[in-house]
Write a structure and sequence with these properties.
This protein is an alpha/beta fold and 316 residues long. Helices cover 46% and strands 13% of the residues. It is built from 13 helices and 8 strands. Helix 3 (89-101) links the parallel strand 4 and strand 5 (110-113).
């Protein structure tokens, strides 16, 4: 059963309501952005692999016409001024360049994708084609499109590409509440790694802390997470200030003996737990050195413990 959304609000005053948009790969990201953009730009076609999935996306968006690639030739694609590619990252290059090679793009058109890891240079534009390329990556979790419609405003978005494309897309994304910042095309992979660390790996770190609790004999399966308050306080302190104001604990105060007992306990745990603990501990030591709470001697002793090879470990 298709997901029906409320009727679109009246068009807002973005200066390019006459521009036409085609969306290719309207999954969680694509249909959310299309729903938001449909107030500000003319949404032509919503292009998915199948006609049924395209129709479901259109039902959610409340605008556009469905187009299934598996049932219609690309020559039937309608013209558009902007082509937004929002399919999975591993398909962007093949799908985007297939659209370009279809001959449906016209001089002056813009084609862009929303991946954080891939630059706009992935698109192969014929010489003298006068087609501009870009990428815009919203730092936002689109796991629940309905929720994203309410929470997208204020989302930071990294943008890079040809000046003509970035100017138009900057205006379009600002119209839906995005907060854009430029990024170098060559730095996209490192930039995306930072977002993965902050989002995906934060979840991994929190899960690892719960696994350590379980191994320590703490039963939390039938109770709320006993680390919840600590997590919320720490994250709140970091977001309200910086790492130096948020960091507390044994490394912050230079407690060598406590770190030694932790490392001894981790000898009986999976080896990757110790590796994560030591890697993050080294970063914590760097932060602690800027706090000036721990002595240089204690931090030196801590980093020595954290970086000991297996054969050299002595914690007493």
């Amino acid at each position: 059963m298709s997901e029906q959304m409320p009727d679109q609000l009246p068009a807002a005053d973005w200066p390019s309501r006459s521009l036409r948009l085609n969306c290719v790969g309207a999954g969680l990201v694509g249909k959310t952005l299309c729903h938001l953009m449909a107030r500000h730009i003319q949404l032509n076609q919503v292009i998915n692999q199948s006609q049924s999935s395209a129709q479901q996306a259109v039902d959610f968006i409340g605008a556009g016409r469905p187009f299934g690639i598996d049932s219609q030739p690309l020559m039937h694609l309608e013209p558009a001024d902007i082509w937004m590619i929002t399919c999975p990252d591993d398909l962007i290059e093949s799908v985007g360049n297939k659209i370009i090679q279809s001959g449906r793009l016209q001089p002056g058109n813009i084609i862009f994708h929303c991946s954080g890891a891939i630059s706009s240079k992935i698109f192969q534009i014929p010489k003298l084609a006068d087609i501009s390329v870009a990428s815009v990556h919203p730092i936002h979790s689109f796991s629940d499109p309905r929720s994203s419609l309410e929470s997208f405003s204020g989302t930071p978005c990294a943008i890079e590409g040809d000046p003509k494309a970035t100017k138009v897309l900057d205006d379009l994304f600002q119209s839906i509440g995005a907060d854009l910042f430029p990024i170098d095309s060559e730095s996209k992979s490192l930039y995306h790694a930072s977002t993965v660390m902050a989002c995906n790996y934060l979840v991994s770190l929190l899960e690892l802390s719960k696994m350590m609790l379980s191994q320590a004999g703490v039963d939390h399966k039938n109770h709320s997470n006993p680390l919840k308050g600590l997590i919320e306080q720490t994250l709140g302190n970091y977001l309200a200030g910086d790492a130096q104001t948020a960091l507390t604990g044994p490394i912050s105060r230079g407690d060598v003996d406590t770190i030694a007992t932790h490392l001894t306990a981790l000898e009986n745990a999976p080896s990757n737990w110790r590796k994560v603990y030591c890697s993050l501990g080294n970063i914590a030591a760097d932060i602690s050195s800027k706090q000036s709470l721990a002595s240089p001697q204690s931090l030196q002793a801590i980093t020595k413990l954290l970086n000991q090879k297996d054969a050299d470990r002595k914690y007493d």
